[in-house]
Design brief:
The protein has 5 helices and 7 strands, in the order αβαβαββαβαββ. It is an alpha/beta fold. The longest helix has 16 residues. The two termini are about 20 Å apart.
Length: about 200
Amino acid sequence: MALPAVDQARLIDELLGTLIAELQPESIAIIGCAGGNGFERCKAAGLRRVVGIDINGRYIEIARRRFEKTVPGLELHVADLQLQHEIFKPVDFLYVALVLEYVDLHPALTNLRRHCNTLGMLATLTQMPHSTLKQVSTTPYTSLLKLSDVMKLVDAAELVRQAAQLGFLLQRESTIASSAGKQFKLHVFELGGAGPRNSSSKE
């Protein structure tokens, strides 16, 4: 995802830094953390507790080797967001970037609710459809094409509707464009919050 033609790792990392500065949580869970993308942002912000979740055990081991001695309060778990309950104790902020495209939305959101503190925040980044670009970008790594078989773009209205049913009230949403030309939708929710604060669009 760090290739210029994809450029999603940088986007995910920079957006996380912006959200941490805005929301100022004390604890965070990064869902789909891979090898630890974003952990440096958490360390720099002085978060007291950082939880990383990924379904791929190899990625978790890479993250452990890279960060377990340098990121205070680090917890790492191999887990399936759709299936496993009570993976970790609830946190103030859940960051879910480009993960919902690969899971069933309702069980995933239900499980996210279990792991979010009351008045905690949930930020989701999802890919939007594009008239010319493929859902899975073309790269030299042809094995990534297999993702096309399991990737399903998330309907933004359905995401907001299902989140609201579980108590996640939309605070704001925005559209973000990567340098590769793809567009993504950011939704920021509060569990038990008071409802929308503002909406914006960023090109």
